Fold this protein.
Amino acid sequence: GRANWAYSSALMTKALPPTRHIVSINDLSNKEIETIFEVAQGFLQELADSHIPYRIARSTGLASKSILASLFYEPSTRTRLSFETAMLRLGGANITSADPAVSSAAKGESLADTIRVISNYCDVVVIRHPRDGAARLAAEYSQVPVINGGDGSHEHPTQTLCDLFTLRSKKKSLRNMKVAISGDLKGSRTIHSFVYALARFGATIDPLPAPGMELPEHVARRLREEFHCQMVSKAPDQVGGAIDALYVTADQPHQLSLIPDPDIDYGLLVQKKIDAVYVTRFQKERWAEKDRPYPKVDAEFLGQPKFSEASVMHPLPRVNELDAALDSDRRAIYFQQAAYGVPVRMALISLLLHLHKNKSLHQFSGGFAKPEHPIYAQPIGTGVTCGNRNCIVADPAERQYAANKFYVIEDEARQHCKLRCVYCETDIEQETADQFVVSDSTRKTFSPGLRALARLPTERLKHLIIYRSVSDAVAAGFQPRDNGKKARAG
Ligand code: NCD
């Protein structure tokens, strides 16, 4: 009857225009990021404190019929409160689950089920979770837009929007800007989203990691391979480690990362002063060892001539890595950076919910940097697993829901193929060309190597199961394809 009809129509939301989820900074095109900034700037012009131009002090009624759910499985101050303030300043309302101990997570409920339930209670969800890839999994189960408020050490895209907006308020263009990133580059999710964006907008990145806390290899590799960064040694005469190098973005995005861009004066960039230094805290909750040597940014550090005009940024919270004595330094802009969380998040929410009358802003509904790679979705309980132990697919609570799922990626020379986890975006590399084997579940046979898969559409990968090795495939009951042929021939 009627009730049934209402129920099934609610489940038919798939037929509506696709729901946008902001899980990675790479879910937004550069143009969309610019649009967010224009809208944020508009809110500041309209609603800022008359004495403090970066502080939103008044509200609009734009979101008066909308509800934001904040679902936080990890501590947060700025992200949750600035999202909730943003929603209130838009005239909307909030529902919050900020303590896993008092939600059904404590009873063992999966994230997948929680999202299926609460996405029927609200119009947009912001989620923070200790597992890498949790926000992508949540998005798969949500009826409404999911915004990633930080997932493990993977990404924190809205922090990056605040960071870029702050940099933009200082400089007109990010192109040719040189940004130093200091501290725990491995564990900091803010850094991972930030470096992708810096590369995409043409900035030069100068990594200053704490010992052993360099950018994760898969992030560094994406900077080079996907975002066309070129590695330039800071000290060409010394054979230093990979970290003693800058990432310079080529002007022409199609240029291969190994070919120097003739328009870039690399020597000049190496010598160029730093425009901003971005400091991060030791992410101790993501490391087993709690006490490690860590760089401190203080007046002495910033006394180096190359930092004389550098804005000092920090996503906060700070612990010991950023001296409080710097708060009165003219270069310190971290509290302003945190204040921008409100207009920037107001802009993002209002665009995702299509709340603007201006029709051109409704175009904020495409432009995802869609992966061009085929996706291999594996049946649950068999085949190759994501190698990242903190990935959401490794979470015992999600096992029933979270199948391993990978992009199949071939390098430009078509020599080499790898799998990248769709959730945490960690790559599984092949050590030898034929390390993986691909099994055909209808024929019960397998053959070595992934290479052929990268050129197939996702549709054609459905009956396949990938194993890490021949012995895994044999243990699962498959036999080599060539054996089959020989048997038939004989
Ligand atoms: C960051 C985070 O949660 O990743 N905090 C924030 O949202 N500003 C940074 C941090 O915790 O170090």
